[in-house]
Design brief:
mainly beta; 2 domains; two-stranded parallel sheet; 11 strands; 48% strand; elongated
């Protein structure tokens, strides 16, 4: 009996010592396991880690205008942009210290501030404004973020109502480098420009 017990203990020890700790082995993942020796495909990802380079943006919107209760203008559109020179934001970087920065195609800082996430809601705050975006998806290599804005404005008796949704698609760039923040140009964020909607009326 003692020999049988000894044999079982020995076999158990051999199997235990030979087994490798499993876990996520990707250092940019939110559940990275520094002790893992074998990847178990359990990695989950967030916005931090590298920078996000825009590859396309799709804008869908409606706008209507009335004057004295009389319909004056009504329009619906869908537009997709893939030209890097026209994509804005072109690059976003989210840091572990809860700060973020937007860069143009030349890696010059355009806007920055703090960020926070609650579920799929992403709040970006700069020097004087805040906006809430919706995180559609985040993976090791790609992310999709959505910005929706609805408003009603009275411009000299002209009532303008608009609903706009911009869907931004990004690729993660782990080797991205950017200019120093001292070159930052605050207040140039044009993700959503009301003037271009008013220009539709001209």
């Amino acid at each position: 009996m003692k020999k049988l017990i000894y044999s079982l203990i020995t076999i158990s020890f051999i199997f235990t010592s030979c087994s490798k700790e499993q876990g996520c082995m990707d250092s940019i993942a939110t559940n990275y396991n520094v002790d893992a020796e074998e990847d178990d495909n359990s990695c989950t990802y967030g916005l931090t880690g590298g920078a996000w380079i825009a590859n396309s943006a799709t804008e869908e919107g409606t706008i209507s205008v009335t004057m004295a209760g009389i319909p004056f203008f009504d329009s619906t559109w869908t537009y997709t942009e893939t030209n890097p020179d026209s994509l804005e934001p072109y690059k976003l970087k989210f840091n572990d210290d809860a700060t973020w920065m937007e860069y143009d195609i030349s890696n010059i800082p355009m806007e920055g501030g703090t960020w926070s996430q609650s579920g799929n809601d992403l709040t970006l705050t700069d020097s004087d404004t805040s906006m809430v975006l919706n995180i559609i998806s985040v993976s090791q290599e790609q992310s999709t973020i959505e910005l929706s804005i609805s408003a009603v404005e009275n411009d000299g008796g002209m009532i303008m109502s608009y609903n706009v949704t911009s869907t931004l698609n990004f690729n993660r760039d782990l080797n991205s480098c950017c200019e120093d923040n001292t070159a930052q140009r605050i207040g140039k964020n044009q993700w959503f420009d009301k003037k271009k909607f008013k220009n539709l009326l001209k």
